[in-house]
Amino acid sequence: MAETADDRLRLLIERIERLEEEKKGIGDDIKDVYSEGKAVGYDVKIMRQIIRIRKMKPDDRREMEAILELYKAALGID
């Protein structure tokens, strides 16, 4: 029984290691796409912000934008 548990643990660890390698590769690919965007004149910081906004639910995005406008008005920005 212990041998089976040890084998299972080893397989799980190896699987996690493979996935971590894939994740690193995907991260490198994403970085390359941002670099490509920068090379053609896009602002990478804004691109990252757009990605973050697009992940949000519409209601959450509207709430965030409303609060941002409220804070900006309170600070006299714009």
Broad structural category: mainly alpha
**Shape annotation:** elongated
DSSP helix fraction: over 70%
Number of helices: 3
How far apart the termini lie comes to 69 Å
Could you spell the SSE succession in H and E letters? Answer: HHH
Q: Which parts are unreliable, with pLDDT below 50 for 5 consecutive residues or more?
A: none
**Total beta-strand segments:** 0
For the report, how would you describe the main beta sheet?
A: none
- Percent of sequence in beta strands: under 5%
Mean pLDDT: 96
Q: From the structure provided, what is the oligomeric state, counting identical versus distinct chains? A: single chain
Radius of gyration (Å): 22 Å
Describe this structure in words.
By secondary structure, the protein is mostly helical. 87% of the residues lie in helices and 0% in strands. It is built from three helices and no strands.
List the helices and strands and how they pair.
Layout: H1 2-39, H2 44-55, H3 58-75
Question: Nutshell version of this structure?
Answer:
This protein is mainly α. Helices cover 87% and strands 0% of the residues. The chain contains 3 helices and no strands.
